[in-house]
């Protein structure tokens, strides 16, 4: 089976009738990044930068972060590189930061909220990314965004970083900007944020958790609310349609993308990119190549009409 998949490594990810999508990798370290071409990925759709803090005894300096992003650019050799700013919060164990206990960490100071409240830490990351962008294209995306005021704050902070870099005579490059769409608010407020963005990426892991109000770490709840449900499909559909209206490309980086039964439906709904774990990538590519786009569109239209979780999951297991 492995050798059957190997032939897809150097092939583009496209449907049988050559509708091309970008198939990217979710990574958490430089070592992951060194395997991106081994699995035939078009680049990185999600670099979870907080992973580099998980084993660190102290916060990496701006220079250390800059070195790491530059190393990643070199390994990627022109392929897409999407960095997600630190998604820190009390839901993650980080020995180098003492995070205050929160009763409800998933609803607390995490993602961009945490970053905006801890400017020294955040500015070290933003400056490192801006400096690295002098050596290659970088897409930067912000986690846990609900509304446009948060973007105002983020872009003000980026301007501040640029001013300080100019004062210090440090070179930097321009970035592409995106958000992770992972709260119901972000879906509903998307149109007001798109004018400030170059791309978006749907984070279905959290979008499921927050739309179902179901803790993603509680296995009993994930049994009741599996990753594929009518409500998540509807939220994805609204997001894609809203972004298409503004001609903004849409990626999807949650676990749902790596399910070979679901990915074709996402393509049928108009998704431009999927970002998945390294070990699901080749198998997924081979599945996507199997059928024509019209088949995937038809399946997505039918799937969107299904109202029951079990019926929907059954439907995707035999619709292609
Ligand atoms: C998501 O929420 O779907 C996502 C991709 O990010 P994470 O799993 O890191 O929260
Ligand atoms: Mg998330």
TrEMBL record:
Domain of life: Bacteria
Catalytic activity: L-histidyl-[protein] + phosphoenolpyruvate = N(pros)-phospho-L-histidyl-[protein] + pyruvate
Cofactor dependency: Mg(2+)
First-listed, main subcellular location of the protein, grouped into a coarse class: cytoplasm
Localization annotation: Cytoplasm
Record-annotated active site: 253
UniProt binding sites for phosphoenolpyruvate: 48, 84, 205-206, 216
Its biological purpose: General (non sugar-specific) component of the phosphoenolpyruvate-dependent sugar phosphotransferase system (sugar PTS). This major carbohydrate active-transport system catalyzes the phosphorylation of incoming sugar substrates concomitantly with their translocation across the cell membrane. Enzyme I transfers the phosphoryl group from phosphoenolpyruvate (PEP) to the phosphoryl carrier protein (HPr).
Family: Belongs to the PEP-utilizing enzyme family.
Protein name: Phosphoenolpyruvate-protein phosphotransferase
Gene responsible for this protein: ptsP
Shown segment, full-protein numbering: 247 to 566 of 566
